[in-house]
Amino acid sequence: MPPLINPDPTSSARATDAVHELYLNIHGFAVRISAQAPTVRDGLRRDFAYFSGAGRPPEYALHLRLFSLPPKRRKSWPGLPALTTRDYVAFDQDGIRRVRYWDSAEAEFHPRLRELHITCADLPRLHELAYLALLSKAGEALDCRGLHRIHALGFEWKGAGALLLLPSGGGKSVLALELARATEAGIFSDDTPLLTQDGRVLAFPLRWGFQHSYPLEGIPGGFVRPFLRRRHGPKHLVDIDYFRGSIRAEAPVKWLFLGRRGTQPGIEPIGRPAALWPLAVNLVAGHGVAQMAEYMIGWSAGDLARLASIACSRLALAATLLRQAGLCRFTLGPRADKNARALTGFLRDRQ
Q: Mind listing the pLDDT tens digit for each residue in 64-82?
């Protein structure tokens, strides 16, 4: 699939401004990003290229400020922690959530100012934290509007939307790449498409990630970059600009496929009970979707009511998908090209 715009994806980043700022509009969630390190800002620009704004919006839902220097460690923190995990400890004071990561990074979220500050001298780690924080805060805002992400491959075939649920590392990005290259299918997202309450799927394309060992044959090197992930090993990222021509805006969800691995590709209809647990995990609970607890979970009555409302809305959406979508079990073989042909052949026969 030839790239449709900007054969050199780094060319627009050469003339960087003094403040290193970036503006995004993620389905109405306006973000201003200020970064000391232009490499981090430009990495985020490539990650979220589909949502890049043409100019500075008059108002922001979030101002993300990134500081590429060692955090000033506090001698003491206020009271008992609100959250403690293997990755961080979080404290609340005066309406501010402060997070100390165990690997030398810190964050402060100021809800009243709508500002999130992240400080880390390790630039790849700063990029990773900023990427996850952006997705978490944008996802929470969209959740409150009844727009929910699901951990799945979202694609379009002849005007019909389809979702393929697979676990992390199950091959969603590889199949999406094959669908975009070799078929007439369009792509909404390789990992977290956005769904409306009435069962439509919306575009939510981000950079595509592939295992470091996967051969990205035919993709110009200018669209590929390495990415080091904490605890998960290295990946290759493919920029949105490479597959922008395959992105689709929206479509009603007509098919829901539950994926599993096997020796040969095959598709068979299944009953609705088989989809209850996968939807509970991938949609209602949001497993595999970036929704960082350090920014999302609070213990006030208002926080708990907000989380309960989001869960109920996701549950109602799962019920809508069960009513309107055809349900199938999709067994994927080892070859992505055969999997893509089996999938599109199945859909073609049912037009």
A: 999 998 877 665 666 788 8
Smallest CA-to-CA distance from 260 within 274, 273, 271, 250 is with 274
Number of helices (H), then strands (E), belonging to the chain: the values are: 8, 20
Can you point out the beta strands (E) in the chain? Answer: 21-26, 29-35, 62-67, 83-84, 88-93, 96-101, 106-110, 115-119, 148-149, 153-157, 160-165, 186-189, 194-195, 200-202, 208-211, 224-229, 233-238, 250-261, 266-269, 326-332
Cβ atoms 147, 202 nearer than 8 A: yes
Residue extents of the structural domains in the chain: 11-144, 148-205+247-349
What's 91's DSSP letter? E
Q: Which residues pair with 161 in a beta bridge?
A: 156, 253
Q: For 107-112, what is the mean pLDDT?
A: 93
What's the fold here for domain 148-205+247-349? Phosphoenolpyruvate Carboxykinase; domain 3 (3.90.228)
Give the pair of three-digit tokens for residue 69. 């220097």
DSSP annotation string for 118-135: EE-S-HHHHHHHHHHHHH
